[in-house]
Amino acid sequence: MKVAANTLRKGMVVEYNDKLWIVMENEIRTPGKGASVAQVIMRDIQSGTKTDVRFATQDMVERARVEEEEYQFLFANDDEYTFMHTGNYEQIIINKDLIGDPAAFLQDGMIVTAQMHEGKPLSVSLPDQVTALITEADPVVKGQTASSSYKPAMLENGVRVMVPPHIESGTRIVVKTEDASYVERAKD
């Protein structure tokens, strides 16, 4: 399906120069003189290389047909993660590079959404937020105000996060998976 270059959004998959690319960023630029252009940053799904392409806003780009399917996380073996399709119970193995940094937040039985193209996984999306246990937290420094200061803490999965001063070791918190930022104390 062809779409106009100015309608490309982050996460869309397009066919360009006989390769599949995922759109990382699209910015419409209007120079002082002349027509507007779409400045698109894309990553090659196969090799991982990035490219910066300038399209005229009315240029048509082939959008790849991508299905979103739910998978359940089973286990990890080094940098390979095994998932099971929730409908037909088929298993697939996905490399950590495809998942990225959020892979640290995968938990047994977690349901994720995989973007698939012709039976091959293109990307994996975790839930927006997960609950995690704090294993280490720096002590509170007297005189720090709770509103403006955060302190470093370590989660059970080895990820470092910044938390408010009142959060201590052993506390369960809610964390955003995309950037490992603190959301709130978990309601147990």
Helices, strands, pairings?
Blueprint: E1 2-4, E2 13-16, E3 19-29, E4 37-44, E5 50-56, E6 60-63, E7 67-77, E8 80-85, E9 91-95, H1 96-99, E10 111-117, E11 120-125, E12 129-137, E13 151-155, E14 160-163, E15 172-176, E16 182-185
Antiparallel strand pairs: 1-6, 2-3, 2-6, 3-4, 4-5, 7-8, 7-10, 8-9, 10-11, 12-13, 12-15, 13-14, 15-16
Structure description:
The chain is an all-beta fold and 188 residues long. It is 2% helix and 53% strand. It has one helix and 16 strands. It has one helix at 96-99; strands at 2-4, 13-16, 19-29, 37-44, 50-56, 60-63, 67-77, 80-85, 91-95, 111-117, 120-125, 129-137, 151-155, 160-163, 172-176, 182-185. The longest helix is centred in the middle third of the chain and has 4 residues, at 96-99. It is flat and about 60 Å long. The termini are far apart. The relative contact order is 0.13. The model has no long low-confidence stretch (mean pLDDT 86).
Helix share bin: under 10%
Give the overall form. Answer: flat
Can you count the helices? 1
Largest beta-sheet characterization: 6 strands, antiparallel
Termini separation comes to 47 Å
Overview features:
16 strands; mainly beta; 1 helix; 188 residues; five-stranded antiparallel β-sheet
Describe, in short, the structure shown:
The chain is mostly beta strands. It has one helix spanning 96-99; strands at residues 2-4, 13-16, 19-29, 37-44, 50-56, 60-63, 67-77, 80-85, 91-95, 111-117, 120-125, 129-137, 151-155, 160-163, 172-176, 182-185.
